[in-house]
Design brief:
single chain; 1058 residues; alpha+beta; Calcium-transporting ATPase, cytoplasmic transduction domain A; Rossmann fold; Calcium-transporting ATPase, cytoplasmic domain N; 9-stranded mixed β-sheet; 8-stranded mixed β-sheet; 34 strands; 47% helix; EC 7.2.2.10
Length: 1058
């Protein structure tokens, strides 16, 4: 790539002046100076030798291809996560221990290897998903390249090359541009062939209308929109013909700068609020696991390290490697118990389900974490054109002449699209057009080069948007009375009224629009042999060239000062409402064009060949009326902004359009109130960048407006808001929006009007281009976050219970009640369905009446932590307790447990099972477990190892049952099951059934029972499981009641203090 791309990065994030320093400011120089600087003649172009020299200096006219991260680096990055690292360490240690135990062979070998292999599988799947997501990050840059022109018509060595590859252009090349051409590089207009030149550059600059270009220089310090003599790469010529001199290529063009900004924004993407919280939780979990593991080892050191005291000093140390390994395995089990392995999978599933819900509301989520980020959005930075407005010009006011010259008639025109059936004219009598309105309709229909067509249920303009809007107005006005019998007025066409006028008054010549007279005229022939001139243009200019005025009945009177002032007053009122106004006039007396029908031999035809004659032809006009046009706001936007205000979300409008238009739209849609003083809330992008304390401006409450904003301004605004701790959603549709979309916490692109560049840079795409869909998506995001918080708390509380179980086992010195593979099964499979089902909890009714949660809002506050510690301790007591009950009791709570014939021992014996070999006359009777009979003839002490299989099964079953009932507690953070019963979320009841079903499968399928080290249970044993598990609901109900009482009293005391 050329040097331009290499230099730009060093100039990024500077002021406009600094970013232009060191380059030739072609926009402020006349054509001769530009020719001298680039050492080229407009007539002959560059020589081939000079082209080759410049290509060595500047490189090809292409956008840089940034090398993405290598696949291995992306894979390694997936392990840069605290929870993942803990899992990895646990898997490696488990694998080593399994290998060590595997040397002994036997059945335990299968069980031992299941755990590390399952953990490795989880990590591999997680890495694959992460790499796939990140490898899509640079697609916006590829989409940007697609809007570049492929070919250019160039003059070199006095020869015209019609299809030179655009990548071969160099600074100094002379390029010819015609209607429909895509501009191949940033260029200085040096010669206008047509009288006018217009380009559509809204996707780059945010302007709502095609822009007139000139070859005259402008001020040095002008902004991108003000560079009227520069055409920008990627924009399109909609009118005119010219020659241009290439000034910037490749990465030095404006689109190249956008490319660079997108790349830089993609390098600085932050973690989502949820990811940050989970990372913080992982770090705390690491510390907790480490402390508990050390504590477990300290408690059990006496079992694998003993010594005698001689003269007060420890001697005769004895170390048991086998027991040391055993307690090390307990520590690993503790780590497995503490980590919610299923959490990443459940979060992904919940977010994926959330994307489906959002898709039903026309919000298509491209990146899963965006679903959660939406829930804590505090600021929406919205583009105006195409987002808050329709990006379709529409006539909103029609002003016609009254019964006398001192009276005007004003009609409000409804509708915001190019659909002729969208809205109507207020107080309009269809088919009763008076002479004055007929003339307005005729001029709007015939003095017009645009068209409207229907494409996929959408109406599209062809040509100038303002002219297309005029044709739509003609359709709403209808046909004159008595015209129905005209055969050409076919109802099958979209513009049947315009067609009728064009058939009735056939155009024979066109006086093209130019920037000096600011009007367009057509000469028409009505078939009577008498030509007429129809003119439309800037109201002041048309009025200045008019000497008469047409009244309602068609009569003509002199245009006096009173009538003129009345029209100018109406113009002023419309202009201050940000309407673009066009005036209409006509002329019947055309002495030079008598009997003219387009014939080149007619004397008048020579006058038309020279545009300098147009002003003299368009004089002594008869003024008939004017219209006000605008890019109207979407109808649903006002309510959406009200909803944002109620939800505590600020709306900031950032647009490339001019200040007056943007302010008028913002007042209309509710960003500002109609009479609000917005002098301190509305700035141009340039003025904002010159502020000393930009953050103070952004901290203002309510809405803000930034007009004439360039792409880097949008980026800087988003960056400053993020530094202030705001969670920023940025909407947009153009190329100029892409860098800010990439940088924002969540970028939202328009699906219909949006460019591919904007869509690829965004996290979410609106299928209907509707701002109100964002508000609906925010509500859905809040609901999803609340549900995610519910299942995260549920899973964490379950893990606390597992940790308590293992800790109590180690502290009491009893045999291991749960092995790592069982804990892994519970965390991944058994807990998964209920946790996922909690994602279907119905949303709160007032979810969009609450302020957004803070991005640093904790998932678990102190009270919730205390609650789950209490629940966790109960889970530990229940799972360990049922283990002890089976060994020490033949019945519990009236439930007979002696049916299997197992031997009862004392608690003292159970706690000191390691000394079994020294006990005298200890025997253990065989007992039944399903179809198996477990005996201990060879070694009675195996009763505490292989014989614990029934007690382990009871512990595992109690753990599963408690966690199922605990999922009911998670339906609401503080609400009782009496007010929010389980059937409000039928998916949860189904999930509980699935989890219990999976547990039955591993219990009653022999192969799986062997893998998990469990056996089938009898009916009485299941009664014991339920009796021990059910109290968890009662305990949490009591805790919720306490929580409601304390929070209620806290609210009341706060209200009293206020």
């Amino acid at each position: 790539m050329g040097r331009g791309g290499q230099d730009y990065g060093r100039k990024e994030n500077t002021s406009s002046d600094n970013s232009d320093r060191g380059i030739f400011k072609a926009w402020s120089k006349d054509v001769r100076e530009c020719e001298e600087h680039f050492k080229v003649s407009v007539k002959s172009g560059l020589s081939h030798d000079e082209v080759e020299n410049r290509r060595k200096i500047y490189g090809s006219n292409e956008l840089e291809k940034h090398d993405g991260q290598s696949i291995w680096k992306l894979v390694l990055e997936q392990f840069n996560d605290t929870l993942v690292r803990i899992l990895l360490a646990a898997a490696i240690i488990s694998f080593i221990l399994a290998w060590y135990d595997g040397e002994e062979g036997g059945e335990m070998e299968i069980t031992a290897f299941v755990e590390p292999l399952v953990i490795f599988l989880i990590l591999i799947v997680n890495a694959i998903v992460g790499v796939w997501q990140e490898s899509n990050a640079e697609k916006a840059l590829e989409a940007l390249k697609e809007i570049q022109s492929e070919h250019a018509s160039v003059i070199r060595n006095n020869e015209r090359i019609p299809t030179l590859p655009a990548k071969d252009l160099v600074p100094g090349d002379i390029v010819e541009l015609k209607v429909g051409d895509k501009v191949p590089a940033d260029m200085r207009v040096v010669e206008l062939i047509s009288s006018t030149l217009r380009l559509e550059q809204g996707s780059l600059t945010g302007e709502s209308e095609a822009v007139n270009k000139t070859n005259k220089p402008v001020a040095e310090d002008t902004d991108i929109q003000g560079k009227k003599c520069i055409v920008f790469a990627g924009t399109t010529v909609v009118n005119g013909h010219c020659f241009c001199l290439v000034t910037q290529t490749g990465m030095e063009t404006e689109i190249g700068k956008v490319h660079n900004q997108i790349h830089e924004a993609s390098q600085s993407e932050d973690d989502t609020p949820l990811k940050k919280k989970l990372n913080e939780f992982g770090e705390r979990l690491t510390m907790m696991i480490g402390l508990i593991c050390i504590l477990v080892w300290l408690i059990n050191v006496k079992y694998f390290l003993t010594w005698d005291y001689v003269d007060g000093w420890p001697t005769n140390f004895k170390f048991s490697f086998e027991k040391c390994t055993y307690y090390f395995e307990i520590a690993v089990a503790l780590a497995v118990a503490a980590i919610p392995e299923g959490l990443p999978a459940v979060i992904t599933t919940c977010l994926a389900l959330g994307t489906r819900k959002m898709a039903q509301k026309n919000a298509l989520v491209r990146k899963l974490p965006s679903v959660e980020t939406l829930g804590c959005t505090t600021v929406i930075c919205s583009d105006k054109t195409g987002t808050l407005t329709t990006n379709q010009m529409a006539v909103s006011k029609l002003v016609a002449i009254g019964p006398n010259a001192d009276a005007l008639r004003a009609f409000k025109v409804e509708g915001t699209t190019y659909n002729p059936l969208d809205g109507q004219i207020e107080n309009w009598q269809a088919g009763r057009l008076d002479a004055n309105l007929q003339m307005i309709a005729k001029i709007a229909a015939v003095c017009n080069d645009a068209g409207v067509s229907q494409s996929e249920h959408k109406f599209v303009a062809h040509g100038m948007p303002t002219e297309a809007a005029l044709k739509v107005l003609v359709e709403k006005m209808g046909l004159p009375e008595g015209s129905k019998d005209v055969q050409s007025g076919s109802k099958s066409t979209i513009l049947r009224c315009c067609e009728w006028w064009n058939q009735h008054d056939r155009r024979v010549a066109t006086l093209e629009f130019d920037r000096d007279r600011k009007s367009m005229g057509v000469i028409v022939n009505s078939g009577e042999g008498k030509p007429s001139l129809l003119v439309k243009g800037a109201v002041e200019n048309v009025l200045d060239r008019s000497s008469k005025i047409q009244l309602r009945d068609g009569s003509i009177v002199k245009l006096d000062n009173n009538a003129k002032n009345l029209i100018l007053q109406a113009l002023h009122e419309m202009s201050t409402s940000a309407l673009r106004c066009l005036g209409f006039a006509y002329k019947d007396e055309l002495a030079n064009f008598e009997n003219y029908n387009g014939n080149e031999d007619h004397p008048g035809h020579q006058l038309l060949l020279d545009p300098s004659n147009y002003s003299s032809i368009e004089k002594e006009l008869i003024f008939v009326g004017l219209v006000g046009l605008r890019d109207p706001p979407r109808e649903e936007v006002y309510q959406a902004i009200e909803d944002c205000r109620a939800a505590g979300i600020r709306v900031m409008v950032i647009t490339g359009d001019n200040k007056n238009t943007a302010e008028a739209i913002c007042r209309e849609i509710g960003v500002f109130t109609p009479n609000e003083d917005i002098s301190s809330k509305s700035l141009t992008g340039k003025d904002f960048m010159e502020l000393r304390d930009k953050k103070a401006f952004l901290r203002q409450s309510g809405g803000l407006l930034f007009s004439r904003a360039e792409p880097r301004h949008k980026q800087d605004i988003v960056r400053l808001l993020k530094e202030e701790g705001e969670v920023v959603a940025m909407t947009g549709d153009g190329v100029n929006d892409a860098p800010a979309l990439k940088l924002a916490d969540i970028g939202i692109a328009m699906g219909i009007a949006g460019t591919e560049v904007a869509k690829e840079a965004a996290d979410m795409v609106l299928a209907d281009d509707n701002f109100s869909s964002i508000v609906a998506a925010v509500g859905e995001g809040r609901s999803i976050y609340n549900n995610m918080k519910a299942f995260i708390r549920y899973m964490i509380s379950s893990n606390i219970g597992e940790v308590a179980c293992i800790f109590l086992t180690a502290a009491l010195g009893i045999p291991e009640g749960l092995i790592p593979v069982q804990l892994l099964w519970v965390n991944l499979v058994t807990d998964g369905p209920p946790a996922t089902a909690l994602g279907f909890n119905p949303p709160d009714k007032d979810i969009m009446k609450k302020p957004p949660r803070r991005s640093d809002d904790s998932l678990i506050n102190l009270w919730i932590l205390f609650r789950y510690l209490v629940i966790g301790i109960y889970v530990g007591l229940a799972t360990v307790g049922v283990f002890i009950i089976w060994y020490t009791h033949d019945s519990f709570l009236g439930i007979d447990l002696s049916g299997d014939g197992h031997t009862l021992v004392t608690y003292s014996q159970l706690a000191n099972w390691g000394q079994c070999s020294s006990w005298k006359n200890f025997t253990a009777s065989p007992f039944t477990a399903g179809a198996r009979v477990i005996s201990f003839d060879a070694n009675p002490c195996d009763y505490f190892q292989t014989g614990k299989v029934k007690a382990m099964t009871l512990s595992l079953s109690v753990l599963v049952a408690i966690e199922m009932f605990n999922s009911l507690n998670a339906l609401s953070e503080d609400g009782s099951l009496l007010t929010m019963p389980p059937w409000v979320n039928p998916w949860l009841l189904l999930a509980m059934s699935v989890s219990f079903g999976l547990h039955f499968i591993i219990l009653y399928v022999p192969f799986l029972a062997q893998v998990f080290g469990i056996v089938p249970l009898s009916f009485n044993e299941w009664l014991l499981v339920l009796a021990v598990a059910l109290p968890v609901i009662l305990i949490d109900e009591i805790l919720k009641f306490v929580g409601r009482c304390t929070s209620g009293s806290a609210r009341r005391s706060k209200q009293k203090s206020e």
